[in-house]
Amino acid sequence: MFSRRQFVTTSSCAIALSWRPPMLEAAEPKPFDPTPQIVKIKKQEDIGQILVVPRSFYLYFVVKPRRAIRYGVGVGKAGLEFTGSAIIERKREWPSWRPTPEMIKRDPRAYSKFVDNEYIQPGGPENPLGARALYLYQNGVDTYFRIHGTNRPETIGSAVSNGCIRLSNAHVADLYERVPVGTTVTVI
């Protein structure tokens, strides 16, 4: 038979062993949501600036102090991603496109129709740049990195591109209307 002391001690141990402090519980990650939405941002950033956080697959367009429109994006594969700051110096609707020589060299089979010629793919729904493109420059020189739409919306939320930042066509069209030439883009 248990004494009162044994009962209290055993009960206390059982409760203590089953309790976990909140900091040890696995935090449920929020599901990725590419839908544009106004969110709070931690730091005071310049209004009109674009911030890209590749590890979370989000682009933030700062609209007022500590507030931004957040868009889901796809980013460059490891080793191909853009980093640092650039300026949007050109904007195009339904842009034409040709892969860079480096892209063709890395994957000649994927870009076979561009090998040994000057073919440029016209803008349209099958074009990898999608509905809109924002051209990133550093010190007045084209970086060949873009913020653009995509003909593969299933890639939003992943690192699969040759370095560009891609949004769904509807989302890049929205961003395109909001940002002027001269906008600063910083990839963190």
From TrEMBL:
Q: From the UniProt record, which GO molecular function terms apply?
A: glycosyltransferase activity; peptidoglycan L,D-transpeptidase activity
A Pfam family: YkuD
The pathway is: Cell wall biogenesis; peptidoglycan biosynthesis
Any single biological process term in GO: cell wall organization
Boundaries of every L,D-TPase catalytic domain copy? 48-188
Q: Where is the active site?
A: H148, C164
- Can you say what this protein is called? L,D-transpeptidase family protein
